[in-house]
Design goal:
About 65% of the residues lie in helices and about 0% in strands. The protein is mainly α and about 240 residues long. Helix 3 packs parallel to helix 5 and helix 11 runs antiparallel to helix 12. The longest helix has 22 residues.
Length: about 240
């Protein structure tokens, strides 16, 4: 019983809005303790196992809800009462999940990771409501590419992915590589060469001479500082490093 007491998940609220997830958590934990039969009709579990299962279920009810079932001494009865009271959540969640699924489009998301999160959230809700989910969500992704990416969509189709996870991993990698490419593109103008280290040293000396020219007077400033500073441009870089 000590091990059961350490396990925690969100308690069932009195409104029952988290009933589907709560029921799944309860079933999973009771199964891990070997008490899953205690909430099945016609079970022949011992009174001790029933008591342990009852304590566990009651422990994961909000206080107000727990008070409403103080007189229930059988985990199966408590389980069925809660199911009868809150199982209608499926009729609330399922229509919305189906609506969200129909209108889910890759082109509506700025990042692939955001689309992937929305995909998993919707499919999880559908599964909670008993809907069967398979890799047909891969076709959902293909069919909702932006129209400007038609060629890209065809290229991904030709890779013959067999699982959604393979497709989404490829899209995530492609997105990251594209972001890196755009960052590198923005570092300097197209066809511009990076400034070589040797030229950087020349530039620093010229700049230093320009500063000294200001200190010595107007004539030196015009002769050394401003003149050299103006001539040090991209053409000079080509002369120093024609490659």
């Amino acid at each position: 019983m000590t091990n059961i007491a350490k396990l925690e998940f969100i308690a069932l609220s009195i409104t029952g809005d988290n009933y589907l997830k709560w029921a799944l958590d309860v079933e999973t934990h009771l199964r891990s303790f070997g008490f899953e039969e205690t909430i099945k009709n016609g079970n022949s579990e011992t009174s001790m196992n029933r008591a342990k299962a009852l304590i566990f279920i009651r422990r994961h009810l909000q206080e107000d809800l727990k008070d409403e079932y103080l007189t229930v001494n059988d985990p199966l009865v408590l389980w069925n009462n809660l199911k009868e009271r809150f199982d209608h959540q499926k009729t609330v969640i399922l229509p919305k999940a189906r609506y969200d699924w129909i209108h889910l489009r890759l082109q509506d998301f700025k990042f692939v990771s955001e689309y992937n999160s929305a995909m998993f959230k919707i499919t999880y809700q559908l599964m909670l409501c008993g809907e069967k989910i398979s890799d047909f969500d891969m076709e959902k992704t293909f069919s909702t590419f932006h129209a400007s990416n038609l060629l890209l969509q065809q290229q991904y189709r030709e890779k013959c992915f067999t699982k959604y996870s393979q497709l989404i991993s490829c899209l995530l990698v492609a997105e990251q590589n594209n972001e890196l490419l755009m960052k590198n593109h923005g570092l300097r103008p197209t066809r511009a060469s990076p400034l070589p280290e040797a030229n950087m040293s020349i530039h620093r000396r010229n700049y230093s001479g320009s500063s000294r020219g200001r200190g010595r007077g107007r004539g030196h400033y015009r002769g050394r500082g401003r003149g050299q500073g103006r001539n040090f441009n991209h053409e000079n870089l080509k002369a120093v490093n024609p490659h």
